[in-house]
Amino acid sequence: MLIKLLSTQIPAFWDTIKFCCKEADMVKPENYQAYFNELLHSLLSDKAQCLVRLDEDRTIIALFITRIAGDKITGKKFIHVQTGYSFKPVQDDVWAGEFVDVVKMAKAIGCHKIILSTSNPNVIKITEKLRMTEALRTYEYIIGGN
């Protein structure tokens, strides 16, 4: 079961949030300051949400960052799963149960879909098991080697 941290709880968990995002998100170290400043601002102002899974000792064992966004053409809202990190291997039924939690959250706030972007092969396998479908692929070409 996922628990949403309140914005007032974010400072107490900030080091854990930063660790998970460094491990899961594809952000270069030279961009950490800008990335984490924006993320902290978004979490404190409820523009982003932090969801956690706890073990029996109430220790965080998984963390997700989500954002609610809107399609600029259709005007429909969706949830974007920005970050997903687990400290331990997770069984498929646990992922499935947590996905149900996210779907319930999405429905409750009027979202019509859930999206995520990843290049992690393990996450891709999980999305397929959850019956998510590929919507697009993103490619990049670095100009000048930067």
Portion in beta strands: 15-25%
Structural class: alpha+beta
Q: What is the CATH domain class?
A: Alpha Beta
Poorly predicted runs: none
How do the strands line up in the largest sheet?
1-2-3-4-5
User: How many domains is the backbone divided into?
Assistant: 1
Shape: globular
Radius of gyration, CA atoms, in whole angstroms: 16 Å
Mean pLDDT: 91
Distance between the termini: 41 Å
CATH topology name: Aminopeptidase
CATH superfamily: Gcn5-related N-acetyltransferase (GNAT)
The number of E-state strands comes to 5
Helix share bin: 25-40%
**The CATH architecture:** 3-Layer(aba) Sandwich
Helical segment tally? Answer: 4
Q: Characterize the biggest β-sheet.
A: 5 strands, mixed
In sequence order, what are the helices and strands, one letter per element?
A: EHHEEEHEH
What is this structure's SSE topology?
Elements: E1 3-4, H1 10-24, H2 32-44, E2 48-54, E3 60-70, E4 77-86, H3 92-108, E5 111-116, H4 121-129
Parallel strand pairs: 4-5
Antiparallel strand pairs: 1-2, 2-3, 3-4
Describe this structure in words.
This protein has 146 residues and is α+β, with helices and mostly antiparallel strands. The chain has a single domain, classed as Gcn5-related N-acetyltransferase (GNAT) (Aminopeptidase, 3-Layer(aba) Sandwich). The protein has helices at residues 10-24, 32-44, 92-108, 121-129, and strands at residues 3-4, 48-54, 60-70, 77-86, 111-116. A 5-stranded mixed β-sheet has the order 1-2-3-4-5, with helices on both faces. Helix 1 crosses helix 2. The relative contact order is 0.13.
